[in-house]
Amino acid sequence: MVTGRPVHAAALYAGLAARLGAGRGRGPRRGRLLFEAGAARVGPPPAGWWPGRSASRLRPEWLCLAASLVPALLGESLLPLLAGVAAVPLVGGWLRARARARERDRRADAVIELCAAVAAELRAGSQPAQALRFAARATGALGGEEPAVLAAARFGGDVPEALRCAARAEGADGLAGLGACWQVAVDGGAGLAAGLDRLEAALRERREQRERLRAQLSGAWATVVLLALLPVAGLAMGAALGADPLGVLLHTPAGLACLAVGGALEAAGLWWAGRIVRAGEEP
């Protein structure tokens, strides 16, 4: 009995080694996907979040009030403070639009990872429903439609229609291509993995094209920001030369008229320049 224990232990270790060797290809891939999915779901803190404070108490757009206090105190006028109050909703809308754009890009990247993960699982021998279930939970690309899509895949429902419904979210339009590949594979018997490879390549190419376009337009956006800061630089130069530009603009009729006309022209110029640059960003 004593001599049989090493034999049993060696057989147990050999079985464990064989099992680990057989799952060596899928284990690291699943671990990497789950790790990336956890990092993507946690992500950076939302806009306006500060440690130890509620997001509703302190948001970046409220810094406009703090910035407007400086010219209000220097010029001894409430007009800069009123301008800061008016700028709060505008800056807040701009920040929310940027947050939506980041979320749209994140979801588009998740759809690409979903296609790659489903194709990899299919080649590893998984069934389509099982591959979609694992990839969806690992990447989080389906968003709020994940339960409906997974239920359709598990119980024989209309998976392409469920994917098309999930594709209505911003940045998730690649899911419509996944639904088309699924339908072609089910109806025509074509290889789903090969179709997903082509879909993934097309989505990656579109993402790279968008990134190249943004890189080319970064110079135009820098010009827009420079034009927006020129009036502030002019006021600072006038104050450095010993003049009182804030006093003239805020306490004289001619200065108030110039301030109104200049502010209107500045707003119109920024809107027009931003419109031109945003038109160049469109696909």
From TrEMBL:
This is Type II secretion system F family protein. The keyword Transcription regulation does not apply. Pfam families: T2SSF (PF00482). The chain crosses the membrane at residues 78-97, 220-242, 254-273. It is a multi-pass membrane protein. InterPro entries: T2SS_GspF_dom. Its main location: membrane. Keywords: Cell membrane, Membrane, Transmembrane, Transmembrane helix. Residues 115-237 form the Type II secretion system protein GspF domain. It is found in: Cell membrane. The keyword Transmembrane applies.
